[in-house]
Amino acid sequence: MFTTYKEALDWIHGRLRLGIKPGLKRMEWMMERLGSPETQLKAVHIGGTNGKGSTVTFLRNILQAGNYTVGTFTSPYIEQFNERISVNGQPISDQEILELTNIILPLADELEATELGGPTEFEVITAMAFYYFARMRSVDIVIFEVGLGGRFDSTNIVKPLASIITNIGLDHTNILGNTYEEIAFEKAGIIKADTPIFTAVQHPGALKVITEQAEKVGAPIYRIGSEFFITDHTSLAKGEKFTVQTVNNSIENAEISMLGKHQTENAVLAVNAAQFLGEKGFNLTEQNIRDGLKNAYWPGRFEIISDNPLIIIDGAHNDEGIATLVQEISSRYTGRNIHIVFAALKDKKLDQMISQLDRISNQITFVSFDFPRAAHAEQLLEYSKSSLKLAVDDWQEYLTDEIPNIKPNDMLVITGSLYFISEVKPFLSKCLKNRKISL
Predict the structure, then answer these.
(1) How far apart are the first and last CA of the chain?
(2) Distance between CA 244 and CA 231 in Å, rounded?
């Protein structure tokens, strides 16, 4: 048994050595031993390629505005590990992590001795979340974010009130498939019988797969551009304004504080799910929806860390995410000198991502970071055609030296892997405060 939080966390992270092992058998085995906590929760299940975390926070804030207590399970974390299991946006305590780890540890040891093999890091954390919300902390509803894919994801043992699929992109192709249709099939695995599915997927082939799966299991489906719409969209200096049109009604001039047109799609998914939950006993008013959308904040997603100098961080970790980032920078910051700092995992489509960044950057710096699947800076550099490019091993030293040299017409964009962003954000916050730069 573990006696300290650090021991528990080291054990959890140590299970990264087991890699990714898709399948539900190990989760079902652990849940049975724990008394099936996953069956005792009211939940919403959210999958997709990009936008899952943002959709979680929009829906959570809407429910909180209605005075509900909301649990969330998300990944990866941005500032501290504990935030992966949160209540009303507040990460659970170190002591609770320690208690949960000691509950799962003997199960993991026992499972290790079976033909199923030991649980992965993600399976351990998922089991902790189910147990926590069912046995340790009473909440009104839990929002579970899919980790990878959907069909064989550890979270897919949940029986939700509603399911959401954000968008579909060509990510994790080595596991999920090489086409939009193949990946959509894996994402569509979270669709359950008689459980409504709300989706912002617009790729024709991917949407066809999702629609067919919904029809096959008898799940009512609500699609952007078909059953619900976004109209009158306007980008604001610190957010977006738009009208939500759903089957039931319309909400005019809704506002969000997160930047990017793509965030309006995530927001409208949350609105639709919230209105459906209203039919299931959750008393949510239009004002709750407006307040929740406006108050929603999700770190590391086109987040302005500093206005002077202008520094933005964005966890654009795949081709679609980079495309969205490039579009937002191009539309919002014309005439700026753009310096991009980029880190990525080596199993991504690096050539396409870097090619897009090359097109908008005046300078691009590739960095290494400490993570088992991280690409080396020199490897990233080889993909770039930029005339002003650099590879750096020590990103902390580099940023410390670079930030004071940012000129008024410059902007620094730090992007790539969310695992990298989770290291960068707390470092940047400390660095900027020490230099007394306005945040």
Answers:
(1) 43
(2) 7
* Residue ranges covered by each domain of the chain: 5-295, 303-434
* Structural class in CATH, domain 303-434: alpha beta
pTM equals 0.89
Tell me the per-residue pLDDT of 320-363, one tens digit each, with 9 for 90 and over: 889 999 999 998 899 899 999 999 998 888 999 999 999 999 99
Q: Which of 379, 272, 334, 299 is nearest to 54 (CA)?
A: 299
Residue-level pLDDT at 174: 63
Class of domain 5-295: alpha beta
Angle at 71 between CA 17 and CA 131, to 5 degrees: 55
Radius of gyration, CA atoms only, the chain: 21
Q: What pLDDT is stored for residue 437 in this prediction?
A: 46
* Parts of the chain with a pLDDT under 70: 171-175, 434-439
Q: In the prediction, which pLDDT does 171 show?
A: 63
